[in-house]
Design a protein that fits this description.
Blueprint (H helix, E strand, L loop, with lengths): L7 E5 L4 H12 L3 E6 L2 H14 L5 E6 L5 H15 L4 E4 L10 H4 L1 H29 L2 E6 L12 H21 L4 E8 L5 H11 L3 H9 L10 H12 L10 E4 L8
Parallel strand pairs: 1-2, 1-4, 2-3, 4-5, 5-6, 6-7
The structure holds nicotinamide-adenine-dinucleotide.
């Protein structure tokens, strides 16, 4: 399949985990990529991997930026349009997990920080990319929510508030922009084994993190972590011309976890 030939895809959080997996899939299918992340070294590593493993890819630029900074967001969108002239797909994905704590202990600074990145960052990204897509009269946006954005998980006030907010933004803007031939969807991943999840297992269990991981997924109907590439495939489909009539929808990718009583 070459669903991204002549297509421009912008990805935030492209240096790691789900953003990295989606970038690799889009590159394998001939896409032009603009990858944004705070982590400049990580961006360079992903670029090198794409150059060696996805020889088909169109072109790639990397932009170091903090998605919670509105000016930086305006700048990464402008740079992408200056380079490629358009944006066909936007994976609005960068995020952090934040601390695990009871609500009373969560901390107002931590709450602000998590909401700033996970929710305000997603809003800024949509604000500037939608301007471009509305003018082109085409485009697809995939926002990264979470199972924690559609269910109560516990011990993650900031994360839950931010991800429920991402779901709300997706539904609201999907209703607004369908008339301009722009579709907006969200994914709600469960436990996917990315550096973020590995990091929080290590926080909880130190050297025993792999055992703790098994315990963690034992309640999942499929009794395993999801793989980043499974999410990469879903995101590539949602950003492609095969998914243009999916709009305002929130799609779980969690092994059935969010449907379990
Ligand atoms: N892995 C999971 O199980 C899981 C589950 C549900 C939702 N998610 C969501 O998926 C998204 C990606 O997470 P991941 O698991 O790939 O994590 P990750 O830590 O592997 O990757 C996230 C990337 O985002 C970047 N980033 C963080 N803050 C940033 C900022 N302010 N500006 C720019 N870049 C920033 C990081 O540098 C990193 O490269 C996040 O929004 C996360 O909440 C992940």
């Amino acid at each position: 399949m070459n669903r991204f030939e002549d297509k421009v895809v912008l990805i935030t959080g492209g240096a790691s985990g789900l953003g990295h997996a989606a970038a690799l899939q889009v590159a394998k299918e001939g896409g032009k990529l603009s990858l944004v992340d705070l982590n400049e070294d990580g961006l360079q590593e992903v670029k090198q991997q794409i150059e060696s493993e996805a020889p088909n890819f169109g072109e790639i630029i990397t932009i170091a930026a903090d998605v919670s900074d509105e000016e930086a967001t305006k700048n990464y969108v402008n740079k992408t349009v200056e380079k490629f002239g358009r944006i066909d797909g936007f994976f609005n994905n960068a995020g952090i997990e934040g601390k695990q704590n009871l609500t009373e202990d969560y901390g107002s600074d931590e709450f602000r920080k998590v909401v700033d990145i996970n929710l305000n960052g997603v809003f800024y990204g949509m604000k500037y990319v939608l301007e471009v897509m509305k003018k082109q009269e085409s485009g697809s946006i995939v926002n990264t929510a979470s199972v924690g954005g559609i269910r109560g998980v516990g011990n993650q006030s900031g994360y839950a508030a931010s991800k429920h907010g991402v779901v709300g933004l997706t539904r609201n803007s999907g209703v607004e922009y369908g008339q301009f031939n722009v579709s907006i969807k969200a994914i709600a991943p469960g436990a996917i084994l990315t550096p973020m999840v590995e990091g929080s297992l290590k926080q909880m269990a130190g050297d025993n993190w792999e055992e703790a991981g098994k315990e963690f997924v034992s309640v999942n109907p499929m009794k395993r972590f999801g793989k980043p590439e499974e999410v990469g495939h879903l995101v590539a489909f949602l950003l492609s011309d095969q998914a243009t009539f999916i709009n305002g929808a929130v799609i779980p990718i969690d092994g059935g976890q969010s449907y379990k009583y």
